[in-house]
Amino acid sequence: MKNERISEFLVERLAAGDFPSAVYLAAQNGEVVYQDALGNAVVEPELIEAKLDTIYDVASLTKVLVTGLLAAIAIERGDLDPNQPIGTILSEFHGSVHGDLTVNLLAMHTSGLPAWKPFYLFVDHPDEILDEIARTLPTDSEGGVIYSDLNFITLAAVLERIYDAELDELFRREIAEPLGLADTMFRPPAELRGRIAASEKGNEYERLMCIHSEFLAPTVEGGGVRTFRDKVIWGEVHDGNAYYMGGAAGHAGLFSTAEDVFKIVLQFLPKHTQLLKPETCDLFRTNFTHQMNEDRSFAFQLASTKDSTAGTSLPPQSFGHNGFTGTSLWIDPENDRVFVLLTNRTHAHPLPFENINGVRRSFHNIATELLDNES
Questions:
Q1: Is 80 within the bounds of a domain?
Q2: Which is more confidently placed, 227 or 329?
């Protein structure tokens, strides 16, 4: 049901221009307690109101909802050894400087791979991306955490190679169909566009990132598939690499509703999971990066990380993830709670986009207080 206090808080942030729409969900003991849809999912080229079943580009939530979960399933089945060097699975990495990296290092973002690289500027075909990652020099992380899209692009490739299937097919077969997810997919069909929240007009943010990182000269004009779009990105993935890779990638590309995200998130909780053994869920709440610059479990950040978006009310072993488009999810395993907040902060907003981490923290704090009072 709608909660006035949460909804009023988010309406204030809508009015402040943080994002044009938001759909939230707070759940306890496997049941949704609060949910609401606010604002407009599309502002341009037309006005479409957000609803509970609005579909969002969840961006980097793909890392946990798809790639991380599939990797955990593969490990549990014995199909994947988390400590096996990936160079023995991916021929592109055999003999490379990254050949000894393991699934665990990728999943915990301790591989030393850099955070990001615009592969559409470096290779002539998406099939060459793995070769490009293999020859990309590691970042001097001094053994710390570097949150990196490259880790999960590579991890998805490992899964595709061991199962001889594309990532979207693995997701459909292993997650979407068993859970009955009607509104979660890569590459949403055109007939669903009216239900999808829109994103940025063009890829101006990413183009400027390329210039700032000196991957692109300021005078170069982009256009076409290989570089930057100039239309409102609506119904197709916002992330440039995922778009170049055909819309389905290990780090981004998933579209979903708040309720479907919740159904997947339940798989990370031992009392509710249908896809994993309860003990496997310990992977997601265990801190594997003690004394590093960030506390990370398998695929997730932990609330004990300094300045995490969990807020001050979630226990330290809570785990969660953010998405660039304005999405987030956090899971409190101690109190069996789930918090999902989907926004489209990149839509109808001039650069720079709003940093909504404070909104995320406040949402969790308010929702936690309300749930405590319900208990």
A1: yes
A2: 329
Average of pLDDT values for 281-306? 97
The two tokens of residue 168 are 């979207």
> What is the rounded CA–CA span in Å between residue 314 and residue 301?
13
Counted domains in the chain: 1
Of 73-87, 95-109, 114-128, 140-154, which gets the smallest average pLDDT?
A: 140-154
Is 104 a member of any domain?
A: yes
Residue 291: CB partners within 8 Å, gap ≥ 6? none
d(CA 218, CA 231): 20
**pLDDT digits over 37-64, tens only?**
999 999 999 999 999 999 999 999 999 9
Q: CATH code at 146? A: 3.40.710.10
Range of the domain at 93: 67-178
User: CA 280, CA 297: separation in Å to the nearest integer?
Assistant: 12
Domain membership flag for residue 192: no
Is 60 exceeded by the pLDDT of residue 226? no
Residue 101 resides in a domain: yes
In a 13 Å sphere around the CA of 172, the CA atoms on its Cβ side amount to 9
* Whole-angstrom distance, CA of residue 338 vs CA of residue 238: 26
Q: What is the DSSP letter of 222?
A: P
Q: Say if CB 233 and CB 201 are below 8 A apart.
A: yes
- For a pLDDT cut of 70, what percent of the chain falls above it? 97
Alpha-helix residue ranges (DSSP H) falling in the chain: 4-15, 61-62, 69-77, 103-107, 129-134, 149-163, 167-171, 177-179, 204-212, 240-244, 258-265, 282-285, 357-374
